């Protein structure tokens, strides 16, 4: 017996002993009446049911009443009383609950099978009803489909932007509004920058050019390349396509290299209405560049399917709740996180447990760029972070339990060990600068900072240090000779690649009235005119490429006036063009002192045989053909090859320590000062001997100790004070004429 037979048997109240014939006779006259439902408006359905002899049930709907399953009978979905689930539930429930006069109720264990109805009759279509809902498919109200269509179908494209889909990071700015505000930002752009949509819409794109997001209109950019900004701005004003790589900053200050492509599009007229900017992070996705074109632009794959969510740093304490759950993404499609998943719990507020702290510290140690290590007071490595492989080229196992003397320069090990032992005397911080030997690349300068750690309960002492490579100065004598040597009116500075003053010599106060402490930490762009900032950037870039570049410009003094100077930019710690220097050395001299050869010390390169340089009393250098008399400095030997390093004391292969070299330099400077003072003193003596005697004698009374000397007949200051007064009275008595010897016998003619 099929499920349908059983269902009908239960429905009609028959028993298992009923024969098939009896059931068939009953079914031929049976009808199913559905209960009342408000949705059907008092309609009653009577369905005749029949069966054949092959146990195949053929049920035909012959009711003249409308069927509840007929589309024409279904009320509008807008009717609040209509609920299809209630209708079907009530009908099926009524069918399942029906029982006959006899038999067992087996319907509770059998599946409910609704009656098989005939084909659904479609109502006649009288006319299509169309309702317009503008903005139904755009939560922002912006037609991005039309924008991307115009980008793809733009006439005369200048840049091949490559494949673009909706996973791309892009912006749309309104070119018809003031300051080009952002009117649309993709969700991927929010993930890339860390800013929310409410923080982006209505702002100019320049807020990405500073770590704090505050950049004034028309200001010089301090944290990104001004040339790239000018390139993008000039092309946007001209309504042209452009592409440039620029350093942008995420929310919280994290920098990233952004390859920006800007495409102008029109809308209702031929004028540019919008600019569409496509972005890609070249640090996270260097493979996004597909091809480099002949004009210097790039074909970029803007489909960033694996862009990870950027988590901006928290402002508060690490233990505060920062709703980190909203930043946690599916790790299967995101970039792999280098640390364990417990870090997320730590950030979320579990930092008060000791286990979480240990996990956090372990993660910092394993991923720190600096070489973090622990030394005993005897110089034994007790711990080494994994970064030693990258910095020192050693494995951790090779350094553990070994002594610092095995990799430290022999000339530096004595002062280093002395510093380690003195740290046990309660020194606040331990600062070490020494040369260390890498496994394959030779010696390099190493700088370490740390402090003493006392293990509680055991009394064992060790020093925890964080170290990194220390770049040192490298400058050849020939580079200094090319720009005219050294002058009196100049000062030297150390700049970062971005133009930040890291050091300034004390001579800057003589020229600019600024102390070295006032200059350190400021930017060189603050002291140059706004029309020369591009030239300063170009000079810094040239020095970064390993070239020496001189620039004539004006620099601001402390009194508000500008002084014309010549600044020479040298690559700081690299003399080879294939290495990128980490800082720049600048020599700034006054233009008035540049043409004067008398005030400069020219360092001429040695050609065949080295000769001693000599200095004249006024500071000029004397060569073989220079007739200027020279005074040789005693005990000072100045002999250099053109390719020698000016800072040869910092050479990694030098056999002495930097402490010894510094002490010798102090002694040398002391000797130079003493000799300079002796030269000045000898010049004063010669001038005093050649000057006429100041002993005066009165021409009348031969007096020598007069407090004041007056005019006499032989000229001014030839008479003492008393004789001069009498001589003046005689002149007044005679009417201003010259006195004669007969008038005043006391005044006699000068017989000297």
From TrEMBL:
<feature type="domain" description="PAS">
    <location>
        <begin position="357"/>
        <end position="427"/>
    </location>
</feature>
<dbReference type="GO" id="GO:0008270">
    <property type="term" value="F:zinc ion binding"/>
</dbReference>
<dbReference type="InterPro" id="IPR001610">
    <property type="entry name" value="PAC"/>
</dbReference>
<keyword id="KW-0677">Repeat</keyword>
<keyword id="KW-0600">Photoreceptor protein</keyword>
<dbReference type="Pfam" id="PF13426">
    <property type="entry name" value="PAS_9"/>
</dbReference>
<keyword id="KW-0863">Zinc-finger</keyword>
<dbReference type="Pfam" id="PF08447">
    <property type="entry name" value="PAS_3"/>
</dbReference>
<keyword id="KW-0238">DNA-binding</keyword>
<dbReference type="InterPro" id="IPR000014">
    <property type="entry name" value="PAS"/>
</dbReference>
<keyword id="KW-0805">Transcription regulation</keyword>
<protein>
    <submittedName>
        <fullName>Gat2p</fullName>
    </submittedName>
</protein>
<keyword id="KW-0157">Chromophore</keyword>
<dbReference type="InterPro" id="IPR013088">
    <property type="entry name" value="Znf_NHR/GATA"/>
</dbReference>
<feature type="domain" description="GATA-type">
    <location>
        <begin position="692"/>
        <end position="727"/>
    </location>
</feature>
<feature type="compositionally biased region" description="Low complexity">
    <location>
        <begin position="601"/>
        <end position="630"/>
    </location>
</feature>
<dbReference type="GO" id="GO:0009881">
    <property type="term" value="F:photoreceptor activity"/>
</dbReference>
<dbReference type="InterPro" id="IPR000679">
    <property type="entry name" value="Znf_GATA"/>
</dbReference>
<keyword id="KW-0862">Zinc</keyword>
<keyword id="KW-0285">Flavoprotein</keyword>
<keyword id="KW-0010">Activator</keyword>
<keyword id="KW-0288">FMN</keyword>
<dbReference type="InterPro" id="IPR013655">
    <property type="entry name" value="PAS_fold_3"/>
</dbReference>
<feature type="region of interest" description="Disordered">
    <location>
        <begin position="679"/>
        <end position="715"/>
    </location>
</feature>
<keyword id="KW-0675">Receptor</keyword>
<dbReference type="InterPro" id="IPR035965">
    <property type="entry name" value="PAS-like_dom_sf"/>
</dbReference>
<dbReference type="GO" id="GO:0043565">
    <property type="term" value="F:sequence-specific DNA binding"/>
</dbReference>
<dbReference type="GO" id="GO:0006355">
    <property type="term" value="P:regulation of DNA-templated transcription"/>
</dbReference>
<dbReference type="GO" id="GO:0005634">
    <property type="term" value="C:nucleus"/>
</dbReference>
<feature type="compositionally biased region" description="Basic residues">
    <location>
        <begin position="681"/>
        <end position="690"/>
    </location>
</feature>
<feature type="domain" description="PAS">
    <location>
        <begin position="170"/>
        <end position="204"/>
    </location>
</feature>
<dbReference type="Pfam" id="PF00320">
    <property type="entry name" value="GATA"/>
</dbReference>
<keyword id="KW-0804">Transcription</keyword>
<keyword id="KW-0716">Sensory transduction</keyword>
<feature type="region of interest" description="Disordered">
    <location>
        <begin position="731"/>
        <end position="752"/>
    </location>
</feature>
<feature type="compositionally biased region" description="Basic and acidic residues">
    <location>
        <begin position="703"/>
        <end position="714"/>
    </location>
</feature>
<keyword id="KW-0479">Metal-binding</keyword>
<feature type="region of interest" description="Disordered">
    <location>
        <begin position="594"/>
        <end position="631"/>
    </location>
</feature>
<feature type="domain" description="PAS">
    <location>
        <begin position="495"/>
        <end position="547"/>
    </location>
</feature>
């Amino acid at each position: 017996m099929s499920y349908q037979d059983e269902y009908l048997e239960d429905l009609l109240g028959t028993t298992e002993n009923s024969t098939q014939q009896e059931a068939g006779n009953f079914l031929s006259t049976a009808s199913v009446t559905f209960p009342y439902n408000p949705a059907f408006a008092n309609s009653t359905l009577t369905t005749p049911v029949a069966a054949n002899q092959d146990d195949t049930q053929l049920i035909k709907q012959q009711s003249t009443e409308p069927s509840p399953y007929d589309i024409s009978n279904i009320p509008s979905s807008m009717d609040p009383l209509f609920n299809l689930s209630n209708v079907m539930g009530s009908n099926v429930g009524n069918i399942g609950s029906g029982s006959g006069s006899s038999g067992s109720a087996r319907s509770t264990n059998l599946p409910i099978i609704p009656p098989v109805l005939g084909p659904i009759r479609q109502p006649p279509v009288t006319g299509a009803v169309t309702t317009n809902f503008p903005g139904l498919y755009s939560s922002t109200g912006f037609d991005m489909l039309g924008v991307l269509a115009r980008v793809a179908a733009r006439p005369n494209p200048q840049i091949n932007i490559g494949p673009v889909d909706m996973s791309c990071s892009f912006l749309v700015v309104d070119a018809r509004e003031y300051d080009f505000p952002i009117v649309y930002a993709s969700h991927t752009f929010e993930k890339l920058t860390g800013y929310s949509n409410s923080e982006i819409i209505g702002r100019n794109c320049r807020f990405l050019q500073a770590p704090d997001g505050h950049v004034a209109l028309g200001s010089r950019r301090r944290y990104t390349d001004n040339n790239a900004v000018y390139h993008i701005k000039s092309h946007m004003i001209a309504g042209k396509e452009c592409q440039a790589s620029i350093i942008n900053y995420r929310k919280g200050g994290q920098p990233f290299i952004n390859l920006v492509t800007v495409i102008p599009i029109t809308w209702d007229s031929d004028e540019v209405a919008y600019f569409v900017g496509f972005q890609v992070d070249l640090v996270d996705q260097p493979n996004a560049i597909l091809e480099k074109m002949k004009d210097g632009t790039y074909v970029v794959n803007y489909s960033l399917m694996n862009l990870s969510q950027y988590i901006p740093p928290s402002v508060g304490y690490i233990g505060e709740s920062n709703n980190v759950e909203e930043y946690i993404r599916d790790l299967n499609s995101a970039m792999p996180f280098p640390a364990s998943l417990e870090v997320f719990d730590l950030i979320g507020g579990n930092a008060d447990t000791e286990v979480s702290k240990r996990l956090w510290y372990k993660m910092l140690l394993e991923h720190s760029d600096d070489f973090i290590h622990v030394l005993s007071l005897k110089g034994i490595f007790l711990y080494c972070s994994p970064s030693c492989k990258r910095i020192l080229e050693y494995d951790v196992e090779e350094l553990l339990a070994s002594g610092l003397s095995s990799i430290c320069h022999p000339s530096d090990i004595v002062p280093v060990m002395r510093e380690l032992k003195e740290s046990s005397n309660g020194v606040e911080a331990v600062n070490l600068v020494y040369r260390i030997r890498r496994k394959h690349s030779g010696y390099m300068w190493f700088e370490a900072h740390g402090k003493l750690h006392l293990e509680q309960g055991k009394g064992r002492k060790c020093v925890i240090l964080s170290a990194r490579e220390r770049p040192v100065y490298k400058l050849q004598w020939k580079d200094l000779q090319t720009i005219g040597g050294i002058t009196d009116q100049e000062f030297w500075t150390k700049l970062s690649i971005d133009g930040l003053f890291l050091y300034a010599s004390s001579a800057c106060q003589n020229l600019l009235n600024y102390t070295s402490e006032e200059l350190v930490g400021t930017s060189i762009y603050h002291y140059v005119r706004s029309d020369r900032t591009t030239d300063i950037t170009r000079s810094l870039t040239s020095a970064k490429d390993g070239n020496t570049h001189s620039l004539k410009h004006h620099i601001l003094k402390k009194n508000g006036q500008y002084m014309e100077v010549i600044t020479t930019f040298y690559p700081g710690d690299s003399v080879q063009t294939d290495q990128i220097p980490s800082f720049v050395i600048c020599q700034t001299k006054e233009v008035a002192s540049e043409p004067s050869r008398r005030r400069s010390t020219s360092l001429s390169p040695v050609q065949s045989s080295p000769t001693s340089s000599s200095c004249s009393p006024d500071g000029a250098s004397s060569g073989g053909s220079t007739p200027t008399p020279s005074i040789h400095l005693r005990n000072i030997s100045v002999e250099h090859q053109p390719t020698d390093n000016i800072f040869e004391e910092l050479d990694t292969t030098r056999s002495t320590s930097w402490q010894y070299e510094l002490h010798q330099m102090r002694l040398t400077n002391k000797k130079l000062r003493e000799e300079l003072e002796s030269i000045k003193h000898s010049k004063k003596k010669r001038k005093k001997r050649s000057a006429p005697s100041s002993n005066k004698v009165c021409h009348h009374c031969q007096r020598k100790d007069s407090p004041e000397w007056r005019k006499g007949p032989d000229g001014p200051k030839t008479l003492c004070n008393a004789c001069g007064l009498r001589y003046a009275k005689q002149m007044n008595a005679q009417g201003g004429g010259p006195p004669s010897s007969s008038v005043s016998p006391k005044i006699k003619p000068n017989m000297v």
